[in-house]
Amino acid sequence: MTEMTTTPDGDNEPQVSTRKPTRRGGGDPATRGRTTIADGVVEKIAGLAARDVLGVHAMGSGLARTLGAVRDRVPGGSKSVTRGVKAEVGEVQTALDLEIVVDYGVSIGDVARAVRENVIAAVERMTGLEVVEVNIAVSDVKLPEEEEEELEPPRIQ
């Protein structure tokens, strides 16, 4: 920082100031304030991560999937990525409960392990929260000959 000062004989000479600029507040700016993460945010991240695993056919119980299919058909409605996911979020940790439907023929243990790993990696990377547990309930197996749970097509397009 350069300042102009007047010497006793009236000349303006540049003087280099050794003063440090005034710093407002104290400490590292990253530590000023709190960040809170809603349960729904963690649920969305976990739901998307779980669906990415090969062998996961759907999320949620039969009833939840049926109600979700109805909601998805309502104009302006969107797919619920949080279906089958429940999160409890604290200040630094989170715990998750997932309900999944697996494809017939896959190893349920392998799918559950892969879901757990993918969900933990995604949630910890994106939120910085420590995932203390991921509980997985397998509520159904999708058989190859089963038709998708189709509802009647909407009468109004």
Straight-line N-to-C gap: 68 Å
Order of helix and strand elements from N to C terminus: EEHEHEEHE
Low-confidence stretches: none
Number of helices: 3
Mean pLDDT: 81
Helix/sheet category: alpha+beta
Large-scale geometry: elongated
Helical residue percent band: 25-40%
Strand content: 25-35%
Count the E strands: 6
The biggest sheet, with number of strands, parallel, antiparallel or mixed sense and barrel status, is: 4 strands, mixed
Task: Give a brief description.
The chain is of the alpha+beta class and 157 residues long.
Task: Characterise this structure.
The protein is of the alpha+beta class and 157 residues long. 29% of the residues lie in helices and 27% in strands. It contains three helices and six strands. The strands form two sheets. Strands 3, 4, 5 and 6 form a four-stranded mixed β-sheet that branches. The chain has a two-stranded antiparallel sheet with strand order 1-2. Helix 1 (39-51) crosses helix 3 (108-127). The longest helix is centred in the C-terminal third of the chain and has 20 residues, at 108-127. The protein is elongated and about 100 Å long.
Task: List strands and helices in order, with pairings.
Layout: E1 2-6, E2 12-16, H1 39-51, E3 56-59, H2 62-73, E4 85-89, E5 93-103, H3 108-127, E6 130-142
Parallel strand pairs: 5-6
Antiparallel strand pairs: 1-2, 3-5, 4-5
